[in-house]
Amino acid sequence: MKRLFFAFAALLLLAGCSSAPKYANRAEAIAAQIHNPQSKYVVVACHRGDWRNWPENSIPAIESVIAMGADIVEIDLKMTSDSVLVLSHDRDVKRCTNFSRVFREDKEKSAKVKDLTLAEIKSLSLKRAHGVTIDSLRMPTLEEALLCTKDRICVNVDQGYEYYDKVLEITERLGVTDQVLIKGSKPVEVVAEHEAAYPHNMMYMPIINIQQEKGKALFYSYLEKGVVPLAYEVCWGNNNDSAFKDAAEKIIAQGSKVWVNTIWASLCGGDGNDDDAAFRCKDPGEVYQQYMDAGVSMIQTDRPELIIGWLTKVGRHTLK
């Protein structure tokens, strides 16, 4: 009887464990897919957030893609004159803010982020893609953005490897290091030495343009040294050769993942291969299926609703 009691208790314990959530939060679940080279789940990254409806790299742009069910929001970093990291793609703030209006009396005022203090940056209103200023929206700091994304979505830091130490200090303090992916084109040795300086690092992904000599050299240095990153961001300008197909096969065989940018045709094989081409099709799969066939499992897009809808329909975007 005693043995039966213990067996029954063990069954109850197992039942309790099986009903417990596998991951603590959604960002953790997404990161698990990124780390799993065998996963069929296609991770969707949103380029500068939902910039079609909100100012790029803004908090509402981030909130919007979270609501859409995106997995990663891609952001760009610059540093102010008082050493604060803010979200800005451009080196200056003229395109994305009302700088020219705010500082119209100071013709000599520099619009470069590196020449402006955080207070000056925060005095500027952000603009939407078609140039309309939204007076209530300001450029967020990296810390503000990460507080927004924490546990909800992963973050891809672009144009930010030069600030690695500062970014890592912030992610560690906020407890989101495992939810952040940073990328760059530095040599393997440089990245390895940099990461060796810290006991805990962000995810890292090399960027390779497989049809350019520098990109090919970086790619083959990874292969020759047996270094297996989580993923490679692969760029190629045309489909006149088999460069992308060959690279994708090698990456997958290595046990890594393939990230493709469908935001611009110049990054994914030329006309007819990008998000806008998919948008014009009755079935987006006429464009996106080629990437599934090549083994792509991470896509950066400018049309998140379109691709998430299609991926969900074909069973490639359901977190387990």
Description of the structure:
With 320 residues, the protein is α/β, with parallel strands linked by helices. It has one domain: Phosphatidylinositol (PI) phosphodiesterase (TIM Barrel, Alpha-Beta Barrel). It contains 13 helices and eleven strands. The strands form two sheets. It has an eight-stranded parallel beta barrel, surrounded by six helices. It has a two-stranded antiparallel sheet with strand order 4-5. Helix 3 runs parallel beside helix 6 and helix 6 packs across helix 7. The protein starts with a helix and ends in a 7-residue tail after the last helix.
Supply the key terms:
two-stranded antiparallel sheet; disordered N terminus; alpha/beta; TIM Barrel
Question: What secondary-structure arrangement, pairings included, does this model have?
Answer:
Blueprint: H1 2-19, H2 26-35, E1 43-47, H3 59-68, E2 72-79, E3 85-87, H4 99-102, H5 118-122, E4 126-127, E5 133-134, H6 142-149, E6 154-158, H7 164-174, E7 180-184, H8 188-196, E8 203-209, H9 213-225, E9 231-235, H10 243-254, E10 257-261, H11 275-280, H12 285-293, E11 298-301, H13 304-313
Parallel strand pairs: 1-2, 1-11, 2-6, 6-7, 7-8, 8-9, 9-10, 10-11
Antiparallel strand pairs: 2-3, 4-5
Helix pairs in contact: 3-6, 6-7
Number of strands: 11
Distance between the termini: 39 Å
Query: In the CATH hierarchy, what is the class?
Result: Alpha Beta
CATH architecture: Alpha-Beta Barrel
Percent in strands = 15-25%
**Apparent shape:** globular
Radius of gyration computed on alpha carbons: 22 Å
Structural class based on helices, strands and sheet pairing: alpha/beta
Helix and strand element order: HHEHEEHHEEHEHEHEHEHEHHEH
How are the strands of the largest sheet arranged? 1-2-6-7-8-9-10-11
- The number of distinct helices, counting runs of at least 4 residues, comes to 13
How many individual domains? 1
Topology-level CATH name: TIM Barrel
Under CATH, the homologous superfamily reads Phosphatidylinositol (PI) phosphodiesterase
